[in-house]
Amino acid sequence: MSQDFDLDLPSLWFTKLPPTFPVTSMKAKGPTTSTYAYSWEPDEYGAMQKVLIASVRWLDDLSTTKVHITWKATDPLHTARAQQKHFPPPAPLSPSQLDHAHCAYGLNTAAWAESCLGQTVGDGECWTLVQQALQDLAQTYAAHGQEPPLGSQGRSHGACILALSAGAPGDNAGLLQLADVRRGDILQMESAHFRTVEEAPPAARREWGTWQKGRAEKNVRLARHTAVVVGVEGEVVRVVEQNGAVPGVVSEGAYDLRAMVRGEVRVYRVVGEGWCGPLDASWE
Questions:
Q1: Which sign does the torsion angle of CA 230, 116, 255, 160 carry?
Q2: Which of 26, 77, 242, 249 is in the most buried spot, having the most CB atoms within 10 Å?
Q3: d(Cα 28, Cα 5) in Å, to the nearest integer?
Q4: Is the pLDDT confidence value at 4 over 90?
Q5: pLDDT in tens, 199-212
């Protein structure tokens, strides 16, 4: 059973709007996404008290903690009471379950992204394309009585099927096939740097950047980037992305994992919402 977090109730963070949540002890565990809701309810004597229900989910393993805090508005320092519930990470999916998820959601996710080529989705950021795709598809699935896809949880977009770092020993040959990366999966890159050196004619050297003796070097740096996989060719991932090669617009792109010299890449399989449940501010 997970140990309760230090909620630092004397700081009265829960009385602020919005609340200062997650608290420091939770943030120390890793990156999170969270939600909350305020309400009123009677205490054991019938007097009204304030209630905060807040939920936090850790993006590394999708474990979740829910917090329930009650207090009297006239004296929150001495009347605050808190409870916590902890939920473990969702169970790993079997190959057959991952295959089912691809058939159920992957093809539609890729098709949705491709239908947006040349357009600007939402605020034009890369993450918004994926977030909006999963949100729109969830509404469609629910309207037809089918399990919706799990929405983006921060920079996590389902079940992680591949995680690789440029600093890892060996090369990346065959990893995409070994992980069974497919059309409709989600590519998430962090601090990625791709470097390609090619022979280039003089007219192209200005576009590619630095060059020496007829050789041109192209550098693509992505502090944080999200894209939809539409194909895999050897070590090259073909994607539909927003705010990539074309700022603020959905376009096609490709990333050669052999050219990654820095950073991390993760690939997520879009899965059903029931795998770890939606993150909500409820207390059952």
A1: negative
A2: 242
A3: 11
A4: yes
A5: 555 544 344 344 44
CB 173 within 8 A of CB 273: no
Residue 54: is its pLDDT beyond 80? yes
Cβ atoms of 186 and 227 closer than 8 Å: yes
Q: What beta strand segments (E) does the chain contain?
A: 32-42, 48-58, 64-71, 81-87, 159-165, 186-199, 211-212, 215-233, 236-242, 250-256, 260-269
87 touches 80 (CB < 8 A): no
- For residue range 143-169, list pLDDT tens digits in order: 999 999 999 988 899 999 999 998 777
Model pTM? 0.83
Q: What pLDDT shows up at residue 209?
A: 43
Q: Residue 9: name the closest of 93, 84, 98 by CA.
A: 84
What is the DSSP annotation of 25-92?
Answer: HHHTT--EEEEEEEEEEE-TTS-EEEEEEEEEEETTT--EEEEEEEE-TT-HHHH-EEEEEEEPPPPP
The residue written with tokens 């399990």 in the block is 147
Least confident of 85-99, 147-161, 185-199: 185-199
How many other C-beta atoms lie within 10 A of the C-beta of residue 18? 8
Name residue, tokens 């608290």.
23
Token pair in block for residue 61: 């393993």
Q: What is the pLDDT of residue 207?
A: 41
Distance, in Å, from the CA atom of 24 to the CA atom of 87, rounded to the nearest integer, reads: 19
For 228, residues 6+ apart whose C-beta sits below 8 A from its C-beta are: 109, 110, 113, 129, 130, 133, 184, 185, 186, 187, 239, 240, 241
Q: Residues 39, 51: contact at Cβ < 8 Å?
A: yes
3-state secondary structure of 264: strand
